[in-house]
Fold this sequence. Notes:
81 residues; mainly alpha; 89% helix
Amino acid sequence: MGWQLEIAKMALYMSFPVGCFHYFNQPEYFEKWVIQKKQDLYPKLTNEDKARFEELKQELQESYERKALEAYEKQLQAKKS
């Protein structure tokens, strides 16, 4: 009885990962769940969203340039002193 139980446990230990791999590696599962989840998490951008993104990018660029210019002016003033 002992060796039969050990063989049954070993069969379970080996068949579980193989079964999981087989189930989760099916194209139907991938298309149905993963692609739907991706569409839920990352919806398509509208033109309004793209315009807001470009505005934000422009504001950040201007802010960075303003800070760099202020730092450069401070350096010039420090050299003059």
